[in-house]
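Weekly modeling sync, notes
Attendees: S.R. (lead), two postdocs, one rotation student

Agenda item 3: backlog of single-chain predictions. S.R. asked that every request posted to the team notebook include the full sequence so nobody has to chase files. The rotation student volunteered to paste the first one in as an example of the format we agreed on. Action items at the bottom.

Example entry:
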Amino acid sequence: MRVAVALVVASLVLAVGAVGAAVAAPSGIRGTVIRSPTTPVCQEGVPCSAPAAGVALVFLRGGLRVASATTSKAGTFRVVLAPGTYVVRLLRRPAFGGSPPRTVRVLPGRFAVANFDIDTGIR
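Predicted structure, as returned to the notebook:
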């Protein structure tokens, strides 16, 4: 009887483990958005760029908007997306400067890194 119970328990453990292994790791895009220059004249030892907090990004696939994200105070973002190719762009175009859209390929179980630099137009 104990052997039969042990076999049933072992079978259940293997079955649950197989189901858990079938769950795919998340994938998507993460990165940082920086704005620069932040002053008309950059000086040695003084930062000439800063995190772009509160910037809204949109993620397009096949021309359709599939996700959006807003950068943190540190200028970072992370969005979970299915594997595929996406165009990432700013939701709103700034009055001056900006950043061109970027094409990013997401692989299964991985987060692609896409960093953006917003040209502030300060000269």
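Discussion: group reviewed the output briefly. The first helix runs from residue 2 to 22.
Action items: rotation student to repeat for the remaining queue; S.R. to check formatting next week.
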